[in-house]
Amino acid sequence: MSSPEAANAAAFEELETLVRSLGEELARFRKRALHAESKLKQAQAGGTGGDLFSGDRIAALEAENQDLRARVDGAASRTRAVLERVRFLRQQAAQGNGE
Questions:
Q1: Looking at residue 6, what is its pLDDT?
Q2: Residue 61 and residue 63: Cα distance in Å, rounded?
Q3: What confidence score (pLDDT) does residue 65 get?
Q4: What is the Cα–Cα distance from 74 to 63, expressed in whole angstroms?
Q5: Cα angle 83, 6, 80; round to 5
Q6: Local structure of 23: helix, strand or coil
Q7: What gap in Å lies between CA 77 and CA 79, rounded to an integer?
Q8: Residue 94's pLDDT is what?
Q9: Are 29 and 68 contacting, i.e. CB atoms less than 8 angstroms apart?
């Protein structure tokens, strides 16, 4: 296996790992969102005993939301970086094959 092919394989493996990780994280976010929607529907129907929207709860949710946004932004940034590496490696491979 030549060096560009090894680099491409490594980049694609890293990209695959990143995409898998992002998929798993998205699944967790979906599960949490569905759970939150369920709790909201219960609260709207009068089915909860506590105050779902207390000041402390809102502050905790806002902090969690900020953390999740930072994690998603970081994952998006890492994904863009890997895609740029893949594009570069493809260009290098194309130039190597064309010469």
A1: 81
A2: 5
A3: 93
A4: 17
A5: 10
A6: helix
A7: 5
A8: 86
A9: yes
The whole-angstrom distance between residue 10's C-alpha and the CA centroid of its chain comes to: 21
| DSSP-derived 3-state class of residue 54 | coil
- How many helices (H) and strands (E) the chain has is answered by 2, 0
Token reading at 46: 């009068």
The SS3 assignment for 12 reads helix
pLDDT tens string, the chain, 99 residues long: the values are 567 788 788 888 888 898 889 889 988 988 999 898 888 888 777 755 556 567 788 888 999 999 999 999 999 999 999 989 899 988 888 888 765
Give 53's DSSP letter: T
> Do 39 and 50 touch, CB atoms closer than 8 A?
no
CA distance 43 to 23: 30
Q: Which two three-digit tokens encode residue 23?
A: 């998929």
Spatial separation of the C-alpha atoms in residues 35 and 44, rounded to whole Å:
14
End-to-end alpha-carbon separation of the chain, Å?
A: 18
Query: What's the rounded Cα separation, in Å, for the pair 37 and 71?
Result: 22
